[in-house]
Write a structure and sequence with these properties.
7-stranded mixed beta sheet, Glutaredoxin, alpha+beta, 3 domains, 565 residues, 27 strands, 4-stranded mixed beta sheet, 14 helices, single chain
């Protein structure tokens, strides 16, 4: 019966077999990939298509990557190679990709001529292992411009190769060396001091962020505000708690009305961090450091608000804590050997409902960390021709206090004992864009300025952009002390650069830049459980794996006939 059935359906089964082989052939040639990583950092974003679409001449991309390496190194290489091939697929004729394994003298010399230097790596060949020079770099060239990218950063392979390549392509396309970006130098603003000692990497210094801006955008200026702001300046960062004179407020007002971009990062309270005694540090003792009491700067905030509120946004005089969205941080003074929950730093994300912007440059941002912050008051009716959007807001359970000792345990105790939650989501970062009206009238123009340049309303065919954030510490140098802080810095850097480019009208890199590893947070109420988790992650796991590894080596050695490992 079965034989008869098969004979009658020979054509049918033959078609099934043919279809099977055809489908396998099609699938094997299809360029399909599924990125299951937590932050999707192993796939290519739409930024690649946007950037390559604007190219008129192709870009040469030569990758020099040593292939015969250990499995651990190979795991770091494969995502980079996969990303390069995917960018080639999307870029088509706009990208000329060549991947070399420098296993010959000629290729090694060529890599070195591209400013890609070899480093010592372990090589695997069958059962033997040896050490030789490995090459891990990418050379890029467009017309007469060239650049080399090191694929190893911070002792491991880069995880943002797409962004690094696209950023360089955008630089190739730039014709100007200066960025048009400046930091305002006024009393009360944060400093931008080059590092000469470890103490310079403090919470009130933004030298690291300025260096990043210079790498991304070109030369960054520092300007005074007591004269008319030059036309070459397109964006101004005003950071800290500036004590502005009337003339300085007026020049910022007119800068905004002629189409300028103003990014304000304000604070309403002040406190000091006392570093450990360096005399104890040389003996391995890190005591003596502390975070001082926070004091509200009521008079300075009141004066600042008298000006900034004319644009529909004002700063609230308060200290905000987030008991349920607190970030685990490392002690800045090194006194506590494990991470501790710190409610004065808040971790906000789309999942928690704190990041809600629909703007193209903001939607890729999945997480933001706000250190030592207040909130904003928004009055949209003051500027009728301006559109406002809240970029970040608190949770319902945020706590507002007038005084706080900023030390870790004191802040934890205050946040857990205070049950007077806000009960509403307060704005922390707001973006305003449109046709602004001046906050100055002809009769209130300060003396000593040229009145013939005065504008009462927005200059035609321009729109002003104003962003206000209720914390100046998002990218402060204090984050650059450890890997955890650097992760926070990179998350917040992506947010600020996307905001800046949204104001400039160029969002090509927004998605690629936003692919940053996010922080793993654990929302627990019990302080005992918080400490238990911190100790387990910091000590228990390393000790357990250390003991397990030692026992494993001893056991393996005994099997080989060795009495002692």
């Amino acid at each position: 019966m079965i034989r008869l059935l098969l004979e009658k359906n020979k054509i049918f089964y033959a078609n099934i077999i043919i279809l099977f082989f055809l489908s396998n052939g099609v699938i094997s040639r299809a360029n399909l990939q599924l990125d299951l990583s937590k932050d999707r950092i192993n796939s290519v974003t739409r930024s690649t298509k946007k950037v390559f679409r604007s190219l008129e001449t192709p870009v040469l991309v030569e990758a020099y990557i040593t292939q015969k390496v250990t499995g651990e190194i190979l795991r770091g290489i494969l995502p980079i190679v996969s990303t390069l091939k995917e960018m080639k697929r999307i870029g088509g004729d706009k990208i000329q990709l060549r991947i070399y394994d420098p296993d010959t003298e000629d290729l090694r010399n060529k890599a070195q001529s591209r400013e890609i230097q070899g480093i010592q790596v372990e090589e695997r060949k069958d059962a033997e292992a040896s050490v030789r020079l490995g090459y891990f770099g990418v050379y890029m060239q467009m017309e007469d411009k060239s650049h080399s990218i090191n694929l190893i950063d911070k002792n491991w392979f880069v995880r943002d190769i797409e962004y690094r390549i696209l950023k360089q392509v955008k630089k190739f396309l730039q014709s100007k060396e200066k960025s048009g970006i400046a930091f305002a130098e006024v009393p009360g603003a944060v400093s931008i001091v080059p590092w000469s000692r470890i103490q310079d990497k403090n919470k009130d210094n933004l030298y690291g962020f300025k260096s990043v801006l210079r790498q991304e955008k070109g030369e960054i200026e520092s300007i005074l505000l007591n004269t008319r702001i030059p036309d070459r300046i397109q964006t101004i960062f005003l950071v800290g708690l500036p004590r502005l004179e009337k003339k300085e407020e007026y020049y910022l007002d007119q800068f905004l009305l002629r189409g300028g971009n103003l990014i304000c990062m304000f604070k309403s309270f002040q406190f000091q961090i006392k570093d450990p005694d360096p005399r104890l540090a040389q003996f391995g003792v890190s005591g003596g450091g502390s975070l001082g009491n926070a004091s509200l700067e009521r008079e300075d905030v009141k004066k600042l608000n008298k000006w900034i509120s004319g644009y529909g946004i004002s700063l609230k005089t308060e200290i905000l804590l987030e008991p349920k969205q607190a970030m685990p941080v490392w002690d800045f003074q090194g006194r506590i050997p494990f991470q501790t929950i710190y409610p004065a730093w808040a971790v906000y994300s789309k999942q928690t409902g704190n990041l809600m912007s629909k703007k193209e440059a903001m939607t890729p941002i999945t997480q933001l960390v706000i250190p030592w912050f207040s909130s904003l008051i928004l009055k949209e009716t003051i500027q009728s021709n301006v559109q406002y959007e809240v970029l970040a807001q608190t949770s319902l359970n945020a706590v507002s206090v007038d005084f706080a000792n900023m030390n870790y345990k004191e802040v934890q105790r205050l946040a857990s004992s205070t049950k007077q939650y806000l009960g509403y989501k307060a704005p922390i970062a707001v973006w305003a864009s449109g046709k602004f009206n001046s906050v100055f009238t002809p009769s209130s123009i300060p003396s000593g300025v040229r009145r013939n340049f005065y504008q009462r309303t927005q200059q035609e065919e321009t729109q002003g952009n104003l962003a206000v954030i209720a914390s100046p510490y998002m990218v402060s140098d204090i984050l650059l002390h450890n890997q955890n802080g650097l992760q926070v810095f990179n998350l917040n850097r992506a947010f600020l650069l996307n905001l800046l480019e949204m104001m400039e009208g160029d969002t090509d890199l927004a998605e690629a830049r936003s692919r940053q590893p996010t922080l793993s947070t654990l929302n627990v109420e019990s302080k005992f459980f918080q400490k238990l988790v911190s100790w387990i992650l910091s000590f228990a796991f390393p000790v357990f794996f250390g003991i397990f590894g030692t026992l494993y080596l001893i056991r393996r050695a005994k099997k080989r006939g060795v009495e002692k490992a």
